[in-house]
Design goal:
By secondary structure, the chain is mostly beta strands. Helix content is 10%, strand content 31%. A hairpin with a 7-residue loop joins strand 2 and strand 3. The termini are far apart.
Length: 80
């Protein structure tokens, strides 16, 4: 299984970061974009610059507001 992990220290309150990470329409301003609503159990499509024209379907499998979010195959954690 392929695995990708990235970390970053961001000098902002968790609630501010969470608002950016769950704003799917707003992501096109800083990334390729996400189709759908980022919410518990939601199925969304992720667009990436590395493969233009293709969307990757993922599911939001874990969702702890302002703390942790997991997309099927992608694990994103916000530590407070």
């Amino acid at each position: 299984m392929k695995f990708y992990e990235a970390t970053a220290d961001i000098q902002a309150p968790p609630e501010t970061i969470w608002a950016v990470l769950t704003d799917a329409p707003g992501m096109t301003g800083w990334d390729s974009g996400v189709e759908g609503t980022i919410a518990p159990g939601a199925k969304i499509k992720v667009h990436v610059k590395a493969n233009p024209g293709r969307a990757f379907p993922v599911k939001v499998t874990d969702f702890e507001p302002a703390r942790r979010m997991v997309w099927s195959g992608c694990d994103l954690e916000i530590h407070t």
